[in-house]
Amino acid sequence: MSDKDKNKQKNKEQKKADTDEKINKAESESVPSENKSEPVPELSPEEKLKAENAELNDKFLRLLAEYDNFRKRSQKERDAIYPEAICSVVLKLLPVADSFERALCAECSDPEFKKGVEMIKQSFDNFLSQLGITEIKALGEKFDPSLHNAVMHIEDDSLEENTIVEVFQKGYMLNDRVIRCSMVKVAN
Fold it and tell me: Which of 180, 148, 181, 146 is CA-nearest to residue 164?
């Protein structure tokens, strides 16, 4: 048992002892002074067992409630850790996806090699979608600083203000959480 658990147990025992002491004191004060000379009747063995049973039942119910709270808290912590772990791993794998994107854009004299790279890229995209990772839509969209990172700006009167005209690096999300912002060029 850790020191923290020992201290908790010691505090519980101390609180119980204090409570019992207060109850005994209150009972003795509530008895009128003329009744103090009368002896307190002894509890029968059956009554003692009933009292002990009630006390043990109370302890059991408290322990059960404590365990239930612990179980719920642990589940909540596990649920919070899982998306964090996925985001951390995917963030480290995204440069690999970027390399495949660049490889697909490059000129290649061997069509079989290019087909192999496309298949690997498709397999990686399927892996991301199975984890619930989605690509952030950027090209032609309005610039959103919470989703996009503007690294270039151009003036073009034919386009609406804050329109994304080029994507340098794709961004990804897990549910509503941004893993990596899209790196973009914005017009006007």
Answer: 148
Within 10 angstroms of residue 55's Cβ, the number of other Cβ atoms is: 11
Assigned domain for 125 exists: yes
In a domain, 19, yes or no: no
pLDDT of 129-173, one tens digit each?
A: 999 999 999 998 999 999 999 999 999 888 888 899 999 999 999
Q: Can you give the CATH number for the domain in which 172 is found?
A: 2.30.22.10
Give the angle subtended at the CA of 126 by the CAs of 177 and 138, to the nearest 5°. 50
Q: What is the DSSP letter of 38?
A: S
Cβ-contact 178, 134 below 8 angstroms: no
Q: How far apart are the first and last CA of the chain?
A: 65
Print the domain residue range for 111: 84-187
What total of structural domains would you count in the chain? 1
Q: How many Å is the Cα radius of gyration of the chain?
A: 34
The CA-based angle 117-118-122, given to 5 degrees, is 120
Q: Among 34-43, 78-87, 171-180, whose mean pLDDT is lowest?
A: 34-43
Helix axes 45-105, 111-130, angle to 10 degrees: 160
